[in-house]
Write a structure and sequence with these properties.
Blueprint: H1 4-10, H2 14-28, E1 33-39, E2 46-51, H3 56-65, E3 75-79, E4 82-83, E5 101-106, H4 111-125, H5 131-135, H6 145-149, H7 160-163, E6 199-204, H8 212-215, E7 219-227, E8 232-238, E9 241-244, H9 266-273, H10 275-290, H11 293-296, E10 307-308, H12 317-324, H13 341-349, H14 356-386, E11 402-405, E12 408-411, H15 426-444, E13 459-461, H16 476-479, E14 480-484, E15 491-492, H17 495-508, E16 513-516, E17 522-525, E18 532-535, E19 541-544, E20 556-557, H18 569-573, E21 578-579, H19 589-612, H20 618-627, H21 655-676, H22 693-702, H23 710-719, H24 727-749, H25 758-770, H26 783-795, H27 813-827, H28 837-844, H29 848-859, E22 861-864, E23 883-886, H30 898-912, H31 916-934, H32 939-954, H33 960-973, H34 979-994, H35 998-1016, H36 1021-1036, H37 1040-1058, H38 1063-1079, H39 1082-1100, H40 1105-1133, H41 1150-1161, H42 1170-1181, H43 1185-1209
Parallel strand pairs: 1-5, 10-22, 13-19, 20-21
Antiparallel strand pairs: 1-2, 3-4, 3-5, 6-7, 7-8, 8-9, 11-12, 14-15, 14-18, 16-17, 18-19, 22-23
Helix pairs in contact: 2-43, 9-10, 13-14, 14-31, 19-20, 23-24, 24-27, 24-29, 25-27, 30-31, 31-32, 32-33, 33-34, 34-35, 34-41, 35-36, 36-37, 36-41, 37-38, 38-39, 39-40
Length: 1210
């Protein structure tokens, strides 16, 4: 069978051969690179490792980052005298081979080039400054891993005497039982971030722009510089480079000054005239290139941090210019040029996707355009809020105004002209954007198998704020040729849209149906009636308003129309249906798939028996009818999205079908309550371990449960027998209900705040929410306002309104808490039976610092990094200066690489089947494709790196490199305190210990424990794992008292969350016994090991290996205890007798500790022979032909399956 695909492969058509060739090329180039020599002008050449896949433009960027050539931006690359095209891949350049010499040739500057050069130099001068990360700009974000790993690189394999000098004591706030939760350690002070000042001032000159006669001499712009030697310089940027001129602050003289030096680079000129600049810039670049690339690369989507220190505001000429010039929010390479976002997005989607190389190019283009689009849209939204954009309708009320900025359309989330009144008004208008985004996501993305074929050719969706070509030239009523613009009164259909949308019906499980228009004429649709089809002026077919992509959730209804007899008992027992704020509540796609799968499994046994027995097809027809299938011959469950749409009418002849569809929707709603919410007991066996609101939401969504079901989940948690073992889930759920309710209130609270009072209003809201103080807001801290008030009093005798007179300032803690309780009841249907926040915190053991983190992340608030005293009853916790910034909370699509996703899924299946080497290879291939499409700072790349690290460790290979990258990527992409980052820190600590870096392992575990305490508190299962690992590492470092503290806490938490008779609890007892044995306290050791033995005996029986090992250890402890007692008795007896040997206290061996660490983390190592390890290394480094062919066969099979599947559909 193995040879069949090879034979078939030879007979494939030419396109298939081209696809195989591209696969082979990618595999061969995955890790193979070659070295070229780079020859900069005026210096010696140097060697550079490059990849054949690299574009010349990418090599250009690499050289702009290289230590030797970083100060150059305006140059071209030449090979053998010929200039290289920037869009050419290196492997396709004739004559470019190992050792080839590429010359860097200086080019003439244009104004754009000069501005880019200045920006690049400014970036280099502040490359170590974390200000961009704190401010959330330029793709910068924080990473602290190297702060904890840099100290132990050379200390591998310390002797026992040297280990005594390792400082193992943790800060007080990390120790078990400590209630302090300091905030400042979240962002520790890094010595390597201390700026090396090269210049005092670098700014644009007031003599800009050059006059006409100087333009004729090649002047582009003028700069002012103040060096560290306090020398003022006026510099001319010309087409040939940079030189000093004779201008002063009040006298324009463009003639060259002494020394008359012309340098192509600004850095070269400054190095010539300022020794301090030359020295500090050289040191700065050495530090910069020592940073890990993952710390320096810009992330494709901006990550914002919720805390930041108050930093000094510095002069920055680039920032000034970008603020005051009309850049339209574009990136630095397209300044002043407006981009046609719709054309770019649609053009990317229309790229060919036949071969793997085509798909990679298409997906890379989609990803890059999408990330640029999100950045531009975010900047546009901020510009609109800041008042920097002129509205299209300035005469309207502010909340009704609309804006066009950079070819992007913006409006506020309000119900303009009562368009959403039938659906719920402003609440529906706000929810519509999210529903639309979710619908677009399913239409575009191909991340799950159910939607792999939904990326339909010819059907175009918009970025939610791009403009359909030609739409502004006519009214929307004239443009719509499919769907309805008035909720079913007038309905249109069009053959072109029916044909295109019909292809999406099966994967999206949408039933093709008919509705009646205002003339009672049936109109056929393949989507919700609100979905509008528009033919753009560019000839493309666009669909808008995908509000009803998923079936409605009948448990939450805007208006009560259901009779009690129609509601299933499961729903009634949970108190549903409930009234909701709007009628756009829909079921999640994960729930639909789970529901369909459940129906299939319920009926599959019967149909399988009948078909094998050759029985009548009537039973299959009945089974299909029973599950609600639209087909009589196969299970094909689909939903009518318009069943509950207001204003939509159906023909009387379809009344029975409509009733069946309504029952199907009720069955799905009941399935969510009866199956999916109870299924969240996965948290009992710790397969899912949420730590905060984000991870809880992710777990809920994986089960298809919407967050609005938090009240139902809390009621279920209260009913279950194991409620104590799920107390951490209940705690997070209650926190989430409170914070989300507060977020809903905060959204309307800010709408009436004047811009000058934002910081005061936000700090006041946080005080009302989290402070125990009842102090009122200060009248005003602004001296200017008070002086102006006093002047007006003297002149007019009237009082100027104070900040405390504003509506927002009248909010009190009790009023806010009452509104939170009301919102929790109305939206989440959960009753908070506490009179204030203090009572809730005490009752459910919540943490104020965790609540602050949650509200800050959800609302975009950035608070000052300092210690907050929440318990003070005499002064407010937050002042105006504590609100540092407010960031936009952005929800966007997440494009990815489809082929890489398939490879990753196949790898996970292979690993589950025990084919670890095959899994490693497939993950390596997936990593290459993900990195090619998305870059290295992406969540999917994190997943691959994490899995590669785990597999490398299990197979006995070096895992640190993969896991270090995974940690840095998680910090940069998810955040420094995200639960996934904490987990990555934990596994990196394990791999460090295995590599002999014991003190680094300890510091990483301390960091992980601190972050866990900050995010979720000490009463959490994750803390039990961390404390077990900390106890073991401290045991290895012979810090026995500290080790016992952590292990004892781990024992208590394991007993609570795993059960007193669990094997984990037995293992915790055993770990304590080993430490007590090392200390010579055999009585305590015996006590704990007896507990472990009794658990093993009762759970797995006397003949199990664990029980036997525990029994042997008990005997050993008993013997040692007897020897010790004899020695003690002999000492006290003072009788001369035969010499009794002193008892031997065991010292921990690193291999034994590592074995226990592996057991704690649930990792089983596979012993390999030396030959197997050597073979594995060979396989990992070089890809041989067999692996190439296997990958080809794998992808060809996937293609054949897709082709066969399409054939069956047709």
């Amino acid at each position: 069978d193995r040879e069949t695909p090879k034979d078939n492969r030879l007979e494939q058509s030419d396109p298939d051969k081209r696809e195989q060739l591209s696969i082979r090329d990618i595999v061969e180039l995955q890790e193979t690179g070659f070295i070229v020599r780079i020859q900069p002008p005026g210096t010696e050449s140097f060697e550079l490792q490059v990849s054949g896949q690299m574009l010349v433009a990418e090599l250009h960027q690499v050289l702009m980052d290289h230590e030797i050539t970083c100060h150059r931006t305006c140059f071209s690359l030449q090979l053998g005298g010929a200039t290289l095209d920037s869009l050419t891949e290196l492997h396709s350049i004739q004559g470019l081979h190992e050792g080839a010499l590429i010359k860097l040739v200086e080019d003439s500057y244009s104004v754009r080039d000069a501005r880019l050069h200045l920006r690049h130099v400014c970036d280099l001068l502040r490359s170590l400054d974390p200000a961009d990360s704190y401010n959330g700009v330029n793709g910068s974000s924080l990473s602290y891993l190297t702060f904890y790993t840099r100290g132990d690189k050379g200390n591998v394999g310390l002797s026992s005497s040297e280990k005594e000098y390792v400082d193992c004591s943790p800060p007080e706030y990390i120790l078990p039982g400590c209630k302090d939760r300091p905030l400042t350690p979240l962002q520790p002070i890094r010595d390597d971030w201390k700026p090396l000042q090269c210049l005092r001032v670098l700014t644009m000159s007031s003599w800009n722009p050059p006059p006409g006669n100087r333009k004729m001499h090649g002047d582009l712009m003028y700069l002012n510089v103040l060096t560290m030697e306090d020398r003022e310089l006026n510099i001319t940027s010309s087409t040939r480079g940079f030189y000093l001129n004779q201008s002063t602050a009040f006298n324009f003289n463009p003639k060259p000054a002494v020394p008359k030096i012309l340098c192509h680079s600004l850095v070269e000129l400054l190095s010539q005239v300022s020794p301090a600049f030359r020295k500090n810039f050289s040191a700065l670049q050495k530090k910069r290139v020592q940073q890990h690339p993952y710390e320096r690369f810009a992330a494709p989507f901006q990550v914002f941090t919720w805390t930041a220190p108050h930093g000094d505001h510095t002069l920055d000429c680039v920032r000034v210019e970008e603020t005051h010039t009309s850049r339209m929010g574009q990136d630095k390479h397209t300044a002043g040029q407006s981009r046609d976002w719709n054309e770019e997005l649609q053009g990317c989607r229309e790229l060919p996707r036949n071969s793997l190389q085509d798909r990679l190019h298409r997906e890379r283009s989609i990803f890059k355009t999408s990330s640029d689009f999100v950045a531009a849209a975010t900047r546009g939204a901020v510009a609109v809020i800041d008042g920097n954009v002129m509205p299209l309708n300035p005469g309207e009320a502010p909340h009704m105004q609309m804006f066009i900025w950079n070819n992007l359309f913006f409006s506020f989330g309000f119900d303009i002209s009562e368009h959403y009144r039938p659906l719920g008004g402003n609440a529906a208008a706000h929810a519509a954007a999210i529903c639309d985004l979710r619908g677009v996501q399913v239409e575009i993305l191909t991340t799950t198998p159910a939607y792999a074929s939904v990326d339909t050719e010819g059907l175009h969706t918009l970025g939610t704020i791009t403009i359909v070509p030609g739409l502004l030239e006519k009214s929307q009523e004239q443009s719509v040729i499919y769907g309805s613009n008035d909720y079913g009164s007038t309905v249109f259909t069009h053959p072109r849209f029916l044909e295109l949308l019909d292809k999406t019906c099966k994967p999206l499980r949408i039933q093709r149906h008919q509705v009646l228009d205002q003339n009672n004429i049936p109109v056929e649709l393949c989507s919700g009636v609100e979905t509008k089809g528009i033919l753009g002026n560019d000839g493309r077919s666009y669909i808008l308003d995908l509000l009803r992509t998923f079936p409605p959730d009948l448990n939450f209804q805007f208006s009560e129309t259901e009779e009690a007899k129609d509601v299933p008992e499961e729903c009634q027992s949970f108190g549903y249906p409930q009234q909701h704020h709007h009628s756009l509540a829909s079921l999640r796609p994960e729930l639909i798939e789970a529901f369909v799968q459940h129906r299939y499994l319920v009926c599959e046994p019967g149909t399988r028996d009948t078909t094998t027995a050759g029985a009548d097809m009537d039973l299959i027809v009945k089974a299909c009818k029973a599950v609600g299938s639209v087909s009589d011959s196969c299970f094909d469950i689909r939903f009518n999205p318009d069943i509950c749409s207001p204003g939509v009418r159906f023909s009387p002849e379809f009344a029975e079908e409509v009733q069946k569809q309504r029952k199907l929707l009720w069955d799905a709603a009941a399935f969510l309550l009866s199956n999916q919410i109870p299924a969240l007991r996965d948290c009992l066996d710790h397969t899912a371990l949420p730590m905060d609101g984000v991870t809880l939401t992710s777990v809920l969504h994986q089960h298809g449960v919407n967050v609005r079901y938090l009240g139902a989940l809390l009621r279920e948690l209260h009913r279950v027998e194991e409620r104590e073992r799920l107390s951490h889930i209940k705690r997070i759920c209650i926190s989430e209900v409170i914070i989300r309710s507060a977020k809903h209130i905060f959204r309307t609270y800010l709408q009436d705040v004047e811009p000058a009072a934002f910081s005061a209003a936000v700090s006041h809201f946080l005080n009302c929410l989290l402070s125990s103080s009842t102090c009122v807001l200060d009248s005003c801290s602004d001296e200017l306002l008070s002086r102006r008030r006093s002047r007006r009093r003297r002149s007019h005798g009237s009082r100027v309104p104070l900040l405390t007179d504003s509506m927002w300032a009248r909010l009190t803690p009790s009023e806010l808490w009452g509104r939170i309780r009301t919102e929790a009841g109305d939206y989440y249907h959960y009753t908070i039976d506490s009179e204030n926040i203090d009572e809730v915190i005490e009752k459910h053991d919540l943490q104020r610092i965790s609540l602050l983190r949650e509200i800050a992340i959800k609302t975009g608030i950035q608070v000052q990094l300092r210690e907050y005293v929440f318990e003070s009853r005499h002064r407010p916790v937050f002042g105006e200066e504590d609100v540092v910034n407010m960031f936009p909370v952005v929800k966007h699509l997440k494009p990815t690489a489809t082929d890489a996703t398939q490879l990753l899924q196949q790898a996970q299946v292979a690993v589950q089947q025990g084919l670890l080497k095959d899994g490693y290879e497939l993950i390596s291939q997936a990593l290459t494709l993900f990195s090619s499409v998305c870059g290295v700072l992406h969540e999917d790349v994190c997943v691959c790196l994490r899995l590669l690290g785990r597999l490398s460790y299990i197979l006995g290979e070096y895992a640190l490199s993969h896991q270090e990258k995974a940690v840095m990527s998680s910090e940069r992409v998810l955040g420094i305190d995200h639960p996934q980052t904490i987990q990555d820190y934990t596994y990196l600590a394990l791999y460090c210990f295995a590599g002999g870096q014991h003190s680094t392992s300890l510091q990483l575990l301390y960091r992980a424990r601190y972050l866990t305490l900050l995010v979720s508190g000490e009463d959490h299962p994750q803390v039990a794992l961390l404390d077990s690992m900390l106890g073991l590492v401290l045991h290895a470092l012979m810090e026995y008292e500290l080790s016992l503290k952590f292990l004892q806490n781990a024992l208590n938490l394991t007993s609570k969350y795993r059960g007193a008779t669990s094997l984990r609890h037995a293992h915790s007892h055993h770990l304590l016994a080993t430490v007590y044995e090392t200390k010579g306290e055999f009585r305590s050791a015996l006590q704990h090991e007896k507990e472990a033995y009794s658990i093993y005996k009762s759970q797995v029986g006397e003949n199990h290996d664990s029980t036997r090992e525990s029994s042997e250890y008990l005997k050993s402890l008993t013997q040692q205890a007897v020897v010790l007692q004899k020695a003690i008795n002999h000492i006290y007896s003072n009788t001369p007798s035969a010499c009794i040997p002193p008892p031997k206290f065991s010292t921990p061996s690193p291999p034994a500790i590592l074995q226990q660490l592996n057991l704690t983390c649930g990792i089983i190592l596979i012993p390999l022979s030396a030959k197997e390890v050597a073979d594995l290394r060979t396989e990992m480094k070089g890809k041989d032909k067999v692996q190439v062919e296997e990958l080809e066969n794998h992808l060809l099979k996937q293609k054949d399956l897709r082709t066969a599947h399409k054939g069956q559909q047709n």
